[in-house]
Amino acid sequence: MTGATRVLVLNAGSSSVKYQLIDMVDGTRLAAGLVERIGEHAGRLVHTPHGGDRREAVRPFADHAAALKAVAEELAADGRGLDSPELAAIGHRVVHGGKRFTAPTVVTDEVLTEIRRLVPVAPLHNPANITGIEVARGLRPDLPQVAVFDTAFHTTIPEHAARYAIDTAVADRHRVRRYGFHGTSHQYVSRATARLLGRDPAELNVIVLHLGNGASASAVAGGVCVETSMGLTPLEGLVMGTRSGDVDAGVVFHLHRVGGLSVDEIDDLLNRRSGLLGLAGENDMREILRRVEEQDDPAARLALDAYVHRLRKYLGAYYAVLGRVDAIAFTAGVGENAAPVRAAATAGLTELGIVVDPELNSVRSTEARVISAEYSRVTVAVVPTDEELEIAQQAFTLVHPSH
Ligand SMILES: Nc1ncnc2c1ncn2[C@@H]1O[C@H](COP(=O)(O)OP(=O)(O)O)[C@@H](O)[C@H]1O
Ligand SMILES: CC(=O)OP(=O)(O)O
Ligand SMILES: [Mg+2]
């Protein structure tokens, strides 16, 4: 293959930027890294070039623009700067695509305006995604900037699952419905699960549990998403690091009318100070598990139990939605690494045909692997997600449809 074959992928989060430079001919990761704690006193950049040593810098990064400039400098230091003629596109994770964006899209001014209009329904995410696009475009105005939307994979969810049972006219006017997020990951992992089992995705029903900082579940029937736990915004569903997941909407009225909290304060409470953080003062699952195991800490125990209980409720619900489940796939930071969470989420479900093998579950590996017992009717697997590769492939296919 000749010409430009590389894609730089930017995944800009609220306080971090993850990036990868991938050669699409053979999938080589030419560079991977992240900048975290953007806007704080002590930021950190970690950069790993292909075949080279990991470099780390601890210093402040005032904002996303400063972080992206630092990323560009690291890539340039490897001789793979953003000015490289081998770059075919820059792929951006964009969290909310609303109803309009159902596929990867080349960003124009008009597309950017639409992504900006969706900021109120993805306040933690879309602003950072927009900055990423603007900075990258400033550095390489000649290159296609491709937006790959978290919501896209969920556009197949049937109307009766996507609708909230509220007045249709009000819902339509304000575009209130279930959009769902982490779609790029749910799509990648459901297919990777089929590959692991040597099956065609079209004949497989899978429940995907994406458990990272944000967490969501999805039900995928024959490769098509039919239900997911996040809703209008990435707040609904599972208990997360700092987000509550499901609460009675009446909680909002109560906190406002009786508790005297403003709407902005309630937003901040539910999105940034709830979940594991709200229950145990700590949003990192590693620390929660450590406190449970080493200190038998009651707050950490409650947080872990609430997290697992919610997960089990969704597992049961999606089992009923699908009718037949072939596989359950655990993915993202917690799903890939936290064996105790996987064990607790699946314990005592023999009647549902779900039996996890404790020994297989305790194996540490970065590879996709089966953790259920041989006789388990439902295959339970750990399937590492790769949102960056999926974004790079979708972006490259869009700009080079022939490859
Ligand atoms: N070894 C581990 N055991 C338990 N939890 C882990 C482990 N490694 C990472 N995690 C958890 O994974 C979460 C972050 O997941 P990740 O997928 O990296 O998040 P995101 O991409 O949403 O920022 C954190 O809660 C972290 O504690
Ligand atoms: C949509 C979402 O929750 O993303 P993240 O897990 O990256 O916060
Ligand atoms: Mg993630």
Automatic annotation (TrEMBL):
One of its GO terms (cellular component) is cytoplasm. Its cofactor is Mg(2+); Mn(2+). It comes from the Bacteria. Mg(2+) binds at residues 11, 387. Its EC number is 2.7.2.1. Substrate binds at residue 93. The record marks 182, 243 as: Transition state stabilizer. This is Acetate kinase. It comes from Streptomyces tateyamensis. The lineage of its organism: Bacteria, Bacillati, Actinomycetota, Actinomycetes, Kitasatosporales.
